[in-house]
Specification:
five-stranded mixed β-barrel, eight-stranded mixed sheet, BirA Bifunctional Protein, domain 2, elongated, 17 strands, 2 domains, 412 residues, OB fold (Dihydrolipoamide Acetyltransferase, E2P)
Length: 412
């Protein structure tokens, strides 16, 4: 008999013979039988093993089970007839049957995906990523792979990982903080493109919103105004929220107890205010970017996602389109999370761009996009992990990443 995934097995009728294999989440031994909580990554099932066949088994081992599907008090279960041990475990397995903190789980990246919480979060991450691709494909965007090794700092923040063997290239080389600048190359030749890949920041930060390695979704489009770009960002968020709500309701309920936050996000109108209006509401200094506390205040005030647009030119990167003392840009803030998207029209005037780039080097190719056939274009960057924080209701970005990297942590 062929092996069945547990999720498929549980769709079969009571009384059906079935064979499956998985890892033991927990085991309870009684005098005449044992209960195994078996999981193969698709779902878990209770296996009842008569006699002492399972007396030597402990949490963490892997087994193959042949048995009959029976109806238990709440869910279907398997009454085992044949049991084969595939992989042994011992009492030192670090995820024994007890409540573990998320901090403890992060210490064991090789095992933490066997827990229901991390497994559910990674399933949501997988589907969300695919729905993002579906969104852009349906709108005739081209998917481009921008380089991970770069000579340029997109944000001008200076918090980049430099490659030790930069002599290979004959110049300083870094891990990218964003694929945006290169994505503009292809928008200015192919019309509408997006990149979806890893980015890196050498920030010595231990906050719940920061990682050293994370994933960015970055579309770039010709002839998009600021408002059209804001609409695209909103459509992307609502589309993926609706799709993940349909595909993974049980995982979201398990992680967040409810799906109402996604239903509300999809149905409600989103606030759209200027930077000056935002500062009036928070009482903050207009010469400073929005702080984390101000972002929380704004989303709490509106009880919705908030677009904040037209920041002062003095606090925005060189590539954003200037309009007097302000910039044609926006941030999207989500409740309990803060900023998840930053976007703008890109500066298409060579003269203005060169003035903004004073002191920057190695970007002659970027200037050429304005020197030869310049065209208005716009784009934004979505931080996948922060978006997943909102979807899952988890509180730390390290828990929506398969193998998280942050300052002083590189376990595997």
């Amino acid at each position: 008999m062929a092996l069945s995934r547990i999720s498929q097995l549980l769709l079969q009728e009571v009384g059906t013979k079935a064979k499956t294999a998985g890892w033991i989440r927990s085991v309870r031994h009684h005098k005449s039988f044992s209960f195994l909580d078996l999981d193969d990554g698709s779902q878990s099932v209770q296996v009842i093993v008569d006699g002492d066949q399972a007396a030597h088994l402990v949490t963490g081992g892997s087994v193959e089970v042949l048995g009959t599907i029976k109806q238990g008090p709440k869910f279907k279960e398997i009454h085992c007839e044949e049991l084969q041990v595939l992989g042994v475990s011992d009492g030192n397995y670090p995820l024994a049957k007890k409540a573990h903190t998320m901090e403890h789980l992060r210490s064991f990246p090789q095992f933490r995906a066997r827990t229901k919480t991390i497994s559910a979060a990674l399933k949501v991450r997988s589907d969300t990523s695919m729905f993002i691709h579906d969104f852009f494909r349906a709108r005739n965007f081209y998917f481009v792979h921008t380089p991970i090794i770069t000579a340029n700092d997109c944000e001008g923040a200076g918090e980049m990982f430099e490659l030790k063997n930069s002599d290979f290239f004959g110049k300083h080389a870094y891990l990218t903080v964003s694929g945006q600048l290169q994505a503009e190359i292809f928008a200015c030749s192919m019309g509408k493109v997006y990149t979806f890949g890893p980015a890196f920041r050498a920030e010595k930060s231990h906050t719940q919103r920061h990682l050293a390695e994370f994933w960015m979704v970055e579309p770039e489009m010709i002839n998009y105004t600021l408002e059209e770009t804001i609409c695209l960002a909103k459509d992307l968020m609502k589309f993926t929220a609706q799709k993940i709500l349909e595909a993974r309701p049980e995982e979201i309920k398990f992680l967040n107890k409810t799906t109402s936050h996604l239903e509300k996000l999809i149905a409600q109108e989103w606030a759209n205010i200027s930077f000056q209006e935002a500062k009036k509401l928070t009482g903050g200094e207009t010469s400073e970017p929005l702080s984390t506390e101000e972002e929380r205040h704004l989303t709490s005030h509106y009880s919705s996602p908030v677009f904040v647009r037209e920041f002062p030119a003095s606090v925005t990167p060189f590539y954003m389109k200037k309009q007097g003392s302000t910039t044609k840009n926006f941030d999207l803030l989500l409740p309990e999370v803060g900023e998840v998207i930053g976007g703008s029209q890109r500066e298409d005037s060579l003269e203005v761009l060169q003035k903004s780039m004073e002191g920057l080097h190695g970007l002659e190719w970027y200037e050429d996009l304005r020197r030869y056939g310049s065209m208005p274009h716009s784009g934004f960057g979505l931080g996948l992990e922060r978006w997943l924080l909102f979807i899952t209701g988890l509180s730390n970005v390290r828990d929506v990443v398969p193998v998280p990297r942050w300052h002083k942590n590189l376990l595997c």
